[in-house]
Amino acid sequence: MRKGFLSANKFGRGHLENQRIRTGRVTIHDVAAAAGVSISTASKALNNTGRMGDDTRERVKRIATEIGFRPNALAKGLLSNRSFTIGLLTNDTYGRFTLPVMAGITEALVDHGVSVFLCTIEDDPALGKVHVDAMLDKSVDGIIASGKRIDRRLPVDLSNLPVPVVYAFTEGTSDSVTFCADDFQGAALAVEWLMGLGRRRIAHITGPESFVSVRERTRAYHDLVGDALPVMYGTWSEAWGHEAVAKIWDTPGRKPDGIFCGNDQIARAVVDALRERDVRVPEDLSVVGFDNWEIVAAQTRPPLTTVDMNLKALGREAGLTVLALAEGRAVEPGIRTLPCELVVRQSCGGNPEH
Amino acid sequence: MRKGFLSANKFGRGHLENQRIRTGRVTIHDVAAAAGVSISTASKALNNTGRMGDDTRERVKRIATEIGFRPNALAKGLLSNRSFTIGLLTNDTYGRFTLPVMAGITEALVDHGVSVFLCTIEDDPALGKVHVDAMLDKSVDGIIASGKRIDRRLPVDLSNLPVPVVYAFTEGTSDSVTFCADDFQGAALAVEWLMGLGRRRIAHITGPESFVSVRERTRAYHDLVGDALPVMYGTWSEAWGHEAVAKIWDTPGRKPDGIFCGNDQIARAVVDALRERDVRVPEDLSVVGFDNWEIVAAQTRPPLTTVDMNLKALGREAGLTVLALAEGRAVEPGIRTLPCELVVRQSCGGNPEH
DNA sequence: AAAATTTGAGAAAAGCTTTTCTCATCTTGA
DNA sequence: TCAAGATGAGAAAAGCTTTTCTCAAATTTT
């Protein structure tokens, strides 16, 4: 090997000790030897099981800490059939929805020593299968499926797997647990906020009607404001936000004094378009977004008041649920809807202290 | 257990067969039994090692496929000291940089059967240690450290770990391998593009001078256009883009005909601000961004021509390198700089075919 | 035809932990 | 003082796979 080159054998200690070659890793053998007890006693001491003198137990524990023993999760997993590992499968390439979910999962599971494999499978079923198989090979304790919309399945079959599967922000099977945000309640929150500020002509500019989220939010909107104004369906883009504003303002008639947007990108474009038409936000008109995508909502001028779907909490619940299933605890199947909350910034005016 | 409840024991087959309880997983024992050979023969057949008749080998392979045998990665790992697992550690919460890097890593490693643990550690050293320890417990074959800027370390000590560590888009140790984008070359690409379009008064609006990326890009800018115009340092926000444009246009004097921006957010704000001042982009002035953050660059009106750091390729390289190290192959330590490339959209005008 | 090779396949060990037995020693009660 | 029970600790097996030996049978060589 050339000088200055890196190689893995730099990591192996490689000297002899006690008739066996140290592999660089401290095993329970080392603990037992250092404490002068058998391996089984050492194991029992560390796991607070079995019978032995308190002094022995404490001494073993102390020595284990001193020499830096950490049990090999592979060996543990092989024996217990638990790997303390779960897989997170998603087709959300940008991580817009999956990253918050993932943060919640990790937060919930790190205390339990569970790590998360993240696999992004665009919309490729073959790739999906490869990743699922890899997870199963590694004996994951469970799988959480996530995505970018709640009414679409991942392009991979997760039924009849030998491990529990929980769905978060993607469509699941009827006999499993699925977590999603309460679009109806979130939309109601937004519209009620606008009404509470005295807005009476509230428009709704949103995404494609094919999304169940869109229909749910629209339903809440209709329930609260009636159908004096037509709901404007389009794409989830800024382009659509601009176009929708143009449609309204280029048509004669009374203008809205509040706009509830289907997501933050549309809301941002709406705010921009209104500024270009010298409509003042929030003085003349209030805008509410949906998603609380910081990177958009906080950069808009003025920053957006918007609905947060609490994806992190959703991830936390999904994590705890898959853990429960992995441990054999009973969990009621079905769809769990988690409430949204309103994040108040400056695009509506009113009192942020409200 | 109540009816309709889910529980993990639903997954265990749990019937007797051949004197041992089937755990639901097909093991090499099952293959051997079904093929009428010993376990060792089965293993050798499947791994194309050892000596045996071609007919035996083929028969074992066929039966293994038929009954759906997949070797238990835990057992394999315990024996080989390879878990076919790596850890990706990052403090990039939004995933702006880490997700592309991750995609590249996964792409490079999935063929080798390697899965990736993703751990996001905000800036919490304690949390970082917890995650690193969890990875080591699980015998990861290596760790890739990533972040959101190349001149900052992760808040956790990764030296003297028993596994190889590779750095990607974050500062590493001098004796390790670090991958980063070539800021100088990328900036040169942008400025040369502007000059190629005939722009002669090119301004540079960028982020905080404390970033080494900013200084590198500025150096390239200076090398190409001299220092007739002062570089404008600020924050990475849209607010700064607006402010910078205001500064230039509210000051008497000749205006630039090209602006090279330090990132896409600034560039987007610059484009917006220019539109508000009725400066036409790209007719009157060309704008180039940096990062190729689709979500910003593609939504800007007009869409941004911008520099792409090829983070996915960077991730791919990092993945292959950590794999090489894990397999004991020699790798030259040091900083590897990967070239950027220009993504041409419409904010510069000119011929996209160029 | 006998000896030397080659060939095919199985036994056993290793990798690390946990758990279940088993056994020897110590204590307690009669 | 002897039997019964409690206590402390070790031996061994299990979990699954790969690898190294070993051994018997078949083939080739002399």
Please provide a written account of the structure.
Two copies of one chain form a homodimer. Chain A has twelve helices and 14 strands. In chain A, the strands form three sheets. In chain A, strands 4-3-5-6-7-13 form a six-stranded parallel beta sheet, sandwiched between helices. Mean pLDDT of chain A is about 90; it is low at about 10-25. In chain A, helix 1 packs across helix 2, helix 7 runs parallel beside helix 8 and helix 9 crosses helix 10. Helices cover about 40% and strands about 15% of the residues of chain A. The longest helix of chain A has 16 residues, at about 310-325. The radius of gyration of chain A is 27 Å and the shape is elongated. Chain A has about 350 residues and is of the alpha/beta class. At the A-B interface, helix 4, helix 5, strand 4, helix 6 and helix 9 of A face helix 4, helix 5, strand 4, helix 6 and helix 9 of B. Chain A binds a DNA duplex (30 and 30 nucleotides) through helix 2 and helix 4.
